[in-house]
Amino acid sequence: MDVLQRLARFLDRPLFPWKSLLVGFSVAQYVFEGFLSLRQYSVLQEKKPPKVLQGEVSQEVFDKSQAYGRAKAKFGFISSFYGQAQNFAIIYYDILPKLWGLTGIWMTRYLPERFSGEISHTLIFFFTFNLITTILSLPISYYSTFVLEEKFGFNKQTLKLWVTDLVKSQALMIALGAPILSAFLAIVQKTGNNFFYYLWLFGAAVQVFAITVYPILILPMFNKLSPLEPGALKTSVEGLAKRLKFPLNELHVIDGSKRSAHSNAYFYGLPWKKHIVIYDTLIEKSETEEVVAVLSHELGHWSLGHTTKLFGIAQFHMFYIFALFSVFINNRSLYQSFGFHKEFPIIIGFILFSDALAPLDTIVKLLMNILSRKFEFEADAFAVNLGYSTELAKSLIKLQIQNLSTMDADWLYASYHFSHPILPERLGALGWYGGEKKVNGRERDNEKPVKASDREL
């Protein structure tokens, strides 16, 4: 596109302070998110639950939920500072050009000449860099799992399982990452200035491939999926799927309790072949109708076209990212600001471009969270229309208690970070107030609840 080419020429200016600009973006985002976290921390110091929950949540549970939230917030302050320090170190000590040069030496010294091109060099660089960042993240991951989550009774992992998962994840990164990254680079190299069209098509194909392969090859590597045993729950879920004409192929129970005490349920699969997965912890701690109510909400996303809409938005997002990347891929001033004066690797250009895109991505994240919360209200309303108003409210309260989820939130923090409405908002939309549905202060079991579309987000 001519517009993109003109923009590329405009941005490629000698001595343009790209390093200072990108560091400024990073610091601004860090400060902004820290400010939001401080606002949320003040909410986590409240002593009483929101009014709508005072009849549903004991003071002991609320206090524990607040303590869990504060512990995660404190940990978040430390982990974000740690990440910011790593980012500064990478930039200040010119880690990227030094690592690129070092991996180039390894390639020349240890690989046959036919593997001496940019693709081979990039693979060595990428996996080395990924290994370094993984090792640096181990203390944070360990503390989160074996200290924070353990303290509040959620962690069920052993050290052996944690290490095994880590090794499996790295093996998958190499097995799947190598061909995908190689194809990415080859497309950019061979398709000229309009490479982003082809990258977009390739990305969409990878997404469809992942949807197909994930339940067959990847998920069983980490969790055991078992068919849901015959009984009231299976009959009810299959009846719900039939009622909604949901193309249910398999109904699974996943051993989520192997790693965590948190509960969940979800579906996945191709449009004509769907799978429903229910956590064993959800089945263990909920009544049959409550589990069905949760699934009626999840299937509401499918019936209302939310999953299709989000997939379409994801394709548009991916297209504009690749289109904007075409503006930066040959920006010599950007490369030179970060120590690349003779070589201009595609992967480095993409990494630096991603950093430059951070402010725009922040806006996209905010808008996507607003849309996601709207969809959540609509899926709740869908479940209500199926007759699961009371069961859904009770299930949401149980899940909140079991997961010690945040029971209140600062509005600005929630707008930026939360893809789901907080529980008081959802219960209000369901017309649930302290164990009963009320409208205008009176019990109204037959009253139509507030619709998500009638609420301001």
Summarize the structure in words.
The chain has 457 residues and is α+β, with helices and mostly antiparallel strands. Helices cover 68% and strands 7% of the residues. The chain has helices spanning 2-11, 18-43, 59-92, 95-110, 118-151, 159-190, 195-222, 232-244, 280-285, 288-303, 306-328, 332-337, 346-356, 358-385, 389-403, 411-417, 423-430; strands at residues 225-227, 248-254, 265-270, 273-279, 432-433, 436-439, 442-443. It has a four-stranded mixed β-sheet with strand order 1-2-4-3, with helices on both faces. Strand 5 (432-433) and strand 6 (436-439) form a beta hairpin. Helix 6 packs antiparallel against helix 7. The longest helix is centred in the first third of the chain and has 34 residues, at 59-92. 25% of the residues are buried. Residues 438-457 have low confidence and may be disordered.
Question: Nutshell version of this structure?
Answer:
68% of the residues lie in helices and 7% in strands. The protein is of the alpha+beta class.
Which helices and strands, and how do they pair?
Elements: H1 2-11, H2 18-43, H3 59-92, H4 95-110, H5 118-151, H6 159-190, H7 195-222, E1 225-227, H8 232-244, E2 248-254, E3 265-270, E4 273-279, H9 280-285, H10 288-303, H11 306-328, H12 332-337, H13 346-356, H14 358-385, H15 389-403, H16 411-417, H17 423-430, E5 432-433, E6 436-439, E7 442-443
Parallel strand pairs: 2-4
Antiparallel strand pairs: 1-2, 3-4, 5-6, 6-7
Helix pairs in contact: 1-11, 2-3, 4-5, 5-6, 6-7, 7-11, 8-10, 10-14, 10-15, 15-17
